[in-house]
Amino acid sequence: MRVLKTAVAVAAGALIAAGSAAAETWDMPMAYADGNFHTQNGKAFAEAVKVATGGELEIVVHASGSLFKGNEIKRALQTGQAPIGERLLSAHQNENILFGFDAVPFLATSFEASQTLWEAARPALEALLEEQGLVLLYSVPWPPQGIYAKKDLNSAADMEGLKFRAYNTATSRLAELSGAVPVQIEAAELSQALATGVAESFISSGSTGYDRKVWEQLSHFYDVQAWLPRNYVMVNKDAWEGLDESTQNIVRGVAMMAEAAGTAKSEQLSGWYLSQLAANGMSVQPPGDQLRADFEEIGATMTAEWLEQAGDEGQSIIDKFRSMQ
Ligand code: PCA
């Protein structure tokens, strides 16, 4: 009896060892709130990978910048500190201007145009990431970007001197060109920055305004629809190459579905977020004529600056985008 028990225990131990040798667990840092639609989509992606690989690959999502802060995630992936993660790539426009193709003002302002721009830019982005040791899996846009403030903004002149929270160089530049004072803050720290007066205005989607309950400090949202920046889920190349081919194929397939599902969700929730801002007492409106005209002028300057820095590669993305429309 004792021998049998020992044999069963040994066999069970061997099975567990065999199972754990084959199965892999990947930590997935994400920068945004747990309830945010990107995070929820990332969790659905992780769950689907687990089911579809029969548990061979388990992805564990860490939301709200809890494992790595937003501005640390890309480096963590490149250095292999995390195998997979999500990042707003336009935040790295200062590293390579191409990362900012999705934050060029008024280039693509609808979900449809954002999709076309993405199709035009994807090969160049994939190649750039590959050079940096990263494999792109999927990308999902945020809803269109508008301006938050705690007073009426009738023109850019009304933004003079406002402490303006920025999330990348494009949003800093927009602040500067409007006479505001930019300060870089991750979405995870936004509520605190508004509460302590470090920031009093910013540009973002209804999604981030809703996630951060900004109606507690701010009163106005202007639906400028300046651009739809994207989040990107990427894998460290060595980690990717460590997967067998069939697992890679499964992950690719699930990623395609996550891109489609996340994009549909973003579009579907876009109006709902704005209705929630209004339901919580904010004035939600399109920009007036002067504010719109001022932003268009600022946008033209920023577009010219982006094209100048992005050179032929940037121009060819834009030419391809225009030819596809
Ligand atoms: N929310 C993110 C990026 C774009 C958006 O809509 C943020 O404000 O940080």
Structural class: alpha/beta
Tell me the number of helical segments per DSSP (H or I, 4 or more residues long).
10
Regarding CATH, which class of the largest domain?
Answer: Alpha Beta
Q: How many DSSP E strands?
A: 11
Mean pLDDT comes to: 94
CATH superfamily membership of the largest domain: Bacterial extracellular solute-binding protein, family 7
What small molecules does the structure contain?
pyroglutamic acid
CATH fold title of the largest domain: D-Maltodextrin-Binding Protein, domain 2
Radius of gyration: 22 Å
Strand order of the largest sheet: 7-6-8-5-9-11
Enumerate the spans where pLDDT stays under 50 for 5 or more consecutive residues. Answer: 7-21
Shape: globular
> Between the first and last Cα atoms, what is the distance in angstroms?
76 Å
Into which percentage range does the β-strand content fall? Answer: 15-25%
Order of helices and strands: HEHEHEHEEEHEHEHEEHHEH
Whole-number total of structural domains? 2
CATH architecture group name of the largest domain: 3-Layer(aba) Sandwich
Helix fraction bin: 40-55%
How many strands, what sense, and barrel or not for the largest sheet? 6 strands, mixed
Task: Outline the structure in words.
The protein has two domains: 2-142 and 227-271, Bacterial extracellular solute-binding protein, family 7 (D-Maltodextrin-Binding Protein, domain 2); 146-226 and 277-291, Periplasmic binding protein-like II (D-Maltodextrin-Binding Protein, domain 2). The chain has helices at 2-22, 37-52, 70-78, 111-131, 169-177, 190-195, 206-211, 237-241, 245-279, 289-324, and strands at 24-29, 57-62, 84-88, 134-141, 146-149, 163-166, 181-184, 201-204, 220-222, 230-236, 283-285. A six-stranded mixed sheet has the order 7-6-8-5-9-11, sandwiched between helices. Strands 3-10-4 form a three-stranded antiparallel sheet. Strands 1-2 form a two-stranded parallel ribbon. α5 links the parallel β6 (163-166) and β7. With 325 residues, it is α/β, with parallel strands linked by helices. The protein is built from ten helices and eleven strands. Residues 7-21 have low confidence and may be disordered. Helix content is 50%, strand content 17%.
